[in-house]
Amino acid sequence: MTSKPPVSVELVGVGGYLPERIVSNDALAGLVDTSDAWIRERTGITQRHLAAPHETAAFMGTEAARRALHAAGIEAADVDAVILATSTPDQAFPATALRVQAALGARRGFGFDVSAACSGFIFALATAEAFMRCGRARTVLVIGSEVFSRILDWSDRGTCVLFGDGAGAVVLRAGEAGSGRGILSSHLHGDGTSGDLLYVDGAVGLRDASGYLRMNGREVFRHAVAKLSASVDEALAANGLGHADIDWLVPHQANKRIIDAIGRKLDLPAERVVVTVDRHANTSAASIPLALAEAVGDGRIRRGDLVLMEALGGGLTWGSALVRL
Ligand code: UT7
Predict the structure, then answer these.
(1) Closest alpha carbon to 65 in 122, 103, 8
(2) pLDDT beyond 50 at 104
(3) Is the pLDDT of residue 203 over 70?
(4) Is 118 a catalytic residue?
(5) Tell me, what's the pLDDT at 207?
(6) Model confidence band, residue 5 (pLDDT cutoffs 50, 70, 90)
(7) Rounded to an integer, what is the distance from CA 111 to the centroid of its chain?
(8) Is 252 a catalytic residue?
(9) Residues near 248 by Cβ (< 8 Å), separated by ≥ 6?
(10) Residue 287 Cβ contacting ligand 1 at under 6 Å
(11) Separation of 224 CA from ligand 1 center, angstroms?
């Protein structure tokens, strides 16, 4: 038996933050044995933003959150919870979410971090949705903030050319049940047996480990296309929708070839797929809210549009969220 959720979980504001420093492919070709042509052809990436020392996950997450709150017309004092997805926190604890909460001046409620690598934003969004559906919070900031430049092995050409830094945030607010707006569904998946395909080889719990990102790119690519295709089908089936109902695909931005494959699967024209990987590279948990912030900000995505988000990352983790803006 299914029961009607007591509230709708509406997305009422979005904001992004990118570090000032932009680094071209050519600049990386001076560091490792690579070329602008290889990076463009295999990934679609032309440049990435890299953080200065003060641009930490907490700093960038706070800036993105401020912009999302401003767009929503909501005060920090009204935020019930901050849920922040990151694999590159400022500290093991306190949670980066709490650093953001303090910087914003949000004095009530709770906050915590979510660790789901590049799927982190979808996991944080679904977590917020669950809290809101059961009435534990009415206004929630969901943030993805990452400084992958600090965990890259800058001598490994197979990974260091792929990532960038940044943060994105959305404000969720409980609305009236049956409003037709907000999160229509979210689906989360994890397979720990594939953990060694994409991982960081250490953290503060392992003092003698280096803490660099390691990836079997070819295998992750294969999983990404298969699992994201299945995720898209899962989201549509759960809502009784077809391809033609989707207005926008806002995918995790890892590789233009993966994005194109999912866009083709949905029969979406290229202009209905939001792409930022060319300029942002892969910003992990920040990539979806950054892409959403760009497309809402420039007027492409409007109120009432149906937006499908999907991501796959280390874990492996993957999932989707379908949202009516
Ligand atoms: O966000 C989390 C999820 N992550 C992803 O979804 C990433 C998924 N994987 C990918 O996007 C792609 O697999 C990569 C972009 C990482 C690699 O592209 P690929 O087409 O799968 O290349 P490959 O790994 O099969 O490597 C092809 C060749 C290799 O040389 P050989 O063995 O054929 O001689 C690599 O050594 O390209 C070489 N190569 C490079 N050459 C120049 C690898 N990296 C580079 C590089 N520059 N940066």
Answers:
(1) 103
(2) yes
(3) yes
(4) yes
(5) 79
(6) low
(7) 18
(8) yes
(9) 272, 273, 274, 295, 300, 301, 305, 306, 307, 308
(10) no
(11) 14
